[in-house]
Amino acid sequence: MTDAPLATPPEEEPETLTLTVEGGAPDRRLDQWLARRLPELTRSRIQALAKQGRLTDGEGRPIGKLSAPPRPGDTFALTLPPAEPTDLIPEPIPLTILYEDAHLLAIDKPAGLVVHPAAGHSHGTLVNALLWHCPDLKGIGGERRPGIVHRLDRDTSGVMVVAKTDLAFQGLARAFAMHTLEKDYLAIVHGTPPPAGTLDTAIGRSPANRQKMAILRTGGRRAITHWQLLATLPGGLCRVACRIETGRTHQIRVHLASLGTPIVGDALYGKPALDRRLPIPPVRQLLHARRLALAHPVTGEPLLFEAPPPSEFAPYL
Known about the structure:
The chain is of the alpha+beta class. It has helices at 30-37, 43-51, 126-133, 166-178, 251-258, 272-277, and strands at 15-20, 55-57, 75-80, 97-100, 104-109, 157-163, 182-190, 196-205, 213-216, 221-233, 237-244, 287-295, 302-306.
């Protein structure tokens, strides 16, 4: 039996939504009014569509300014493009599934698994695995990272959630944007931080090393990390819990390093010389997303996902 070529699916048509302002519009901004009328779309998504010329007035003229208030009788047309097709190849990569329903998937991501394809990682990623497990994920969220709302670094393990429908994707995007979920991590660090505290800084690309992120005095994006010292360990190490309100790239790694307590095994922000002196040198950075609590993005049901630390943490627990 030979493999037959897959049939080419019919090309999807754009969807145009027409909305008219009736009565008094309490919103001061057009994008606020549209987001309230279209709960499946975030304000940022609406703003992006407007920049693409996909929002027009009753005369068909593009609307670029969304800060003006809508007026009774105004009519708007918003064209939603078809989801961008993906040429990603599904791959039978095993997944540890913590929860699954029609809208949502929660997994325990292993260290070493890249979340989405990028330069140097065109296959063997979490997205490739997800497309094998859930073929209908293609196009979710209208982008080339189907269903992915947040990510973990390649060498960070632990809980991740993935949207299986556009409705769940928009709900998760709102939850992450509004910080209405709780994300807890476990880290093993060199040195001893204060018993507890919070870092509220701006994080952005390091001007000295473009491969690294850094705390910046100007620019960057706000990053908030709460930490708590759980235990001191032999060899000058500590076990630390971190809860983050934001999800900036390398946030916990940068913040803990700024305290003088970098994560064990972190080759970019850590202390490799100290790592090599440990009785059992780490094979990767010892950072694990152990807990994620959120409301179900569609039903509103409270959910709690937990993943035990993997075997690399055993010597420190």
